[in-house]
Amino acid sequence: MKSCFKIPRILIPRENFSLWAVPAGDRMPADRGLWERVEHTVGDSPSALRFLLPQTCGEASGEDVQEIRSRMYAALEDGTLEKLNRGAVFTERTFPDGTVRQGIVAAFDLEQYSDEAGEKALFRPAAKPADPARDLSVRRACPLEFSPALVYFRDKKGRVMQVRTDDLELLYDFELMEQGGTLKGYYLPDDLAAEMLGDISLRGTAFIVAEGVDFVAAAKRHWEQLKTTLPADCLASHPARFVLAEFVDLTAQPARAPMSRYLSCGDDAALIAALSKAIKVKRDGSLLLSVRTGADVIEKADAVLLRLMREKGGDVQYFSRRADLKRALSAGGVGICFDPFTDDDWFDAVSGGAYLPAHCFPSDGASRYLLEGREIAYD
Questions:
Q1: Is 92 in a helix, a strand, or coil?
Q2: Which of 53, 108, 132, 283 has the most other CB atoms within 10 Å of its CB?
Q3: What is the C-alpha to C-alpha distance for residues 378 and 116, in angstroms, rounded to an integer?
Q4: How many other CB atoms are found less than 10 A from the CB of residue 140?
Q5: What is the pLDDT of residues 139-175, one digit of tens each?
Q6: Which residues make Cβ contacts (< 8 Å) with residue 1, sequence separation at least 6?
Q7: DSSP for 171-199?
Q8: CA separation for the pair 243, 157 (Å, rounded)
Q9: Distance between CA atoms of residues 76 and 79, nearest Å
């Protein structure tokens, strides 16, 4: 197996998985309603929610970070958490619409990751990290990580995830809060985990960090700072060198269409002309459909929209459903849609050192939930 993976000893709660697992902290961070509902659902029960900074606050206070640190040590020492034997977790997430997403929870090497623009690396983020500072303050101080990171790989023949779950130990099977569907997790022993992760390495030449971008960026920054203080014989195996993530085969997921754009600036003719000049489009009245989809095409369209917005006024709006865009168009303005990204669109853009444009894909409720953890400083 390539050295880009680490098979960890994963931590899971001993009970009450439905209250322990909470939406990842980077999902709708300013949605007070969401977090108020989660707080109400969890109540006083042990939960990964206790390891998240307040989601509607700005800067992280030292008091908040120290409180999280204390809660993590307490969970380790009071029996709340169970440490599994070295291995990985095979997950099956069933969404409310019946779609099933399979994944493998393991760790990867931060030495193989870069989020610098234009720099190629085995692991690259889909989007430019926005603000890793909050996650970094927690990672520096705390002994555990509970990761929101979801990493895509490509397996066009669909062989990696071919595993008989009947032969595996079921760790959990429960309903996720906030209409997240259901989640099953099976223990993958060390040897089987090594085989499956090695198979991913053979089939994938690049990996995309699609969710938890700020979290992984913070882990990278922490490791770069920490390793300068460590003796040479600790560098290869120090737990902070790695970060926990769920690995998902992108080719097994439904194609995803980038969010549509809409602008009403009082001069539809100028906007249509500018967009038509920048990219090749088909026109249906004031609705434009890009002939080609790709990060470069969306960036060109965004540049036109933002320029016209500054010159003529209005606001660019983003829609994940074309029906919503058409309702907006009934009051005037111009909209532009893009066909779904192919797997190659994703990987060609990101593995080449680029980022996907802002507002590229909607938050569609498919984000990870915080559940599995790992020690990063306690040993």
A1: strand
A2: 108
A3: 30
A4: 16
A5: 999 999 999 999 999 888 888 899 999 999 999 999 9
A6: 194, 197, 198, 201
A7: EEEEEPTTT--EEEEEEEEHHHHHHHHHH
A8: 27
A9: 6
